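Cross-check.
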Amino acid sequence: MKKGWKTVPLGELCDVLDHKRKPITKRDREAGEYPYYGATGVLDYVAGYLFDEPLVLVGEDGAKWASGENTAFAVEGKIWVNNHAHVLRPHRTVVLDNWLIYHLNHSDLIEFVSGLTVPKLNQGCLREIPVPVPALAEQQRIVGLLDEAFEGLATAKANAEKNLQNARALFESHLQSVFTQRGPGWVEKRLEEIGKTQTGSTPKTADQSNYGDFISFVKPADFNPDGSLDYEKDCLSKTGLANARVVPAGSVLMVCIGATIGKCGYCDQDVTTNQQINALTPADGSSHRFLYYQMLTESFQRSVIHRSGQATLPIINKSKWSALSVWLPPTVTEQKRIAAKFDALVVETQRLAGLYERKLAALEALKKSLLHQAFTGAL
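Predicted model, tokenized:
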């Protein structure tokens, strides 16, 4: 810490106004114009208010306290606060609100949090959090620099996030265009008319292995974002393979149960799967990559949800899966041409996504670096 600065417990820098908080159950809230705050922000709007001044709120429970989690935030005006957020009134002749907020959000406060099942930053521990306190003028200078820098970073981050969304939206747009504006000669076929459909089966634990040269055992978590499979996680022993349902290379797969129902993938080598996955192995020469891309479309995904018929645990069994339909161009050559275009678009989309994700990571690293410099006196 910079020479001349001092470290002061937070409890000596603020009035803690927790005794004025009051929770209201959702059932008992009267709708109104005043923000009703909890640990992470506004939860509702109510008819009354408890506070009417600039304050700092810090999550007590139901929040996150690691560095960068933004557990502290400023509020002002007429508000109501429940008992999940600490209410602080900084001693503004000693410490600025934003200095305190920046410091708390930059700090890793986990060591001050107690409770395993319900983690909580209780008031006693909150008061003990050490805060570096330079002169007020120095705080104002540093906060001004941070405000200006973070405004620019926020703009750059918003642009990068928008570009990332646009890159992904371009693929989605092309996907929908190809399969909704079908060319002449396309025909609709049920999956069972195209080839063999099957559901996987989970072998006994004794038949599974994490090593060896045998066939890969695929589960929903082994589907990569681009539809390829992670073949390296698990494989089957010879005993397990003898009892497994093999899905041949050149098949398309889909999760058929649970929260990720409709998640699709394809295999370019023989695999076996658990019972959460349905598979189609084309027997008419159709391209499994073409079928995979069509199964990503909004219309196919809607048909999956419609056929699943359950809200709590959606499931589509083999017979329902087999009855789903897709549209096919008149030749396999055309299918492969379309699939190749999608393959190229996926590569470009991933390239752009990686570029923007690296930019976002760099912006976040720069933000942390600036905060570190600020609170060590190097800014």
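The chain has three domains: 6-134, 135-183+330-379, 187-328. Residues 135-183+330-379 form a domain with the Helix Hairpins fold (CATH 1.10.287). Passed to J.P. for a second look.
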